[in-house]
């Protein structure tokens, strides 16, 4: 079991990995070795994810989620297969953790109190008086 949060864990048997040739740096190995990793997680079929987390995951995943509800993460940043596997798993866990945190409650708009409005008007009046006292026309020296 892979621990995602304190309450959510996913089984290692729910993940499948495919290896493919990576683009980018790799020297002489780039055309010979399959170092890129494509990690697949059947999120919608997972019994370990609550429905609310699944709904948020669909939104967060965007194009990485297939129509069948399979989350596909491709990692090819590194030159070795092992580091790409770790990178893909870490990105999956980060995405699941983000989906597991519920959104904050919506902000309820409030109105300023009567005293706050009065303070604002008083401050405007004082500021205007200060500016008026500065005044004078050029050449009135």
Automatic annotation (TrEMBL):
Stretches assigned to the Prokaryotic-type class I peptide chain release factors domain: 21-37
A single GO molecular function term of this UniProt record: ribosome binding
Region: Disordered, residue numbers: 93-141
Pfam families from the UniProt entry: RF-1
Keyword hit for Hydrolase: yes
Entry keywords, A to Z: Hydrolase
Biased composition regions of type Basic residues, renumbered to the chain: 108-118
GO biological process: rescue of stalled ribosome
Enzyme nomenclature, EC number: 3.1.1.29
PANTHER family assigned: PEPTIDYL-TRNA HYDROLASE ARFB
Protein's recorded name: Aminoacyl-tRNA hydrolase
